[in-house]
Amino acid sequence: MMVCLLMPVSAQEKSGGPTNEKARKTYESALKSLRERKTEWALDDFKKADKQDGGHCLDCQKQMIKYGRELGDWKAAELAAEEMVAEAHGAKDTAVSHYQLAVVLMEEGLQKHKDEIFARAHEEIGKSLDAYSNFPDAFYLDGRVLAQLKRDEEAKAKFEQYVKAKPVEDPNCQRAQRYISRPELARARMVPAFSVTATDGRRISMDDLQGKVVLLDFWATWCAPCREALPHLQKVAKKFQGEPLVILSVSLDSDEQKWKDFIVKNEMTWPPYRDGSFNGPVARMFAVNAIPHTFTIDADGVLQDEHIGDASIEGKLKKLIAHARELQSADNSSK
Question: Are 11 and 31 in contact (CB under 8 A)?
Answer without folding.
Answer: yes
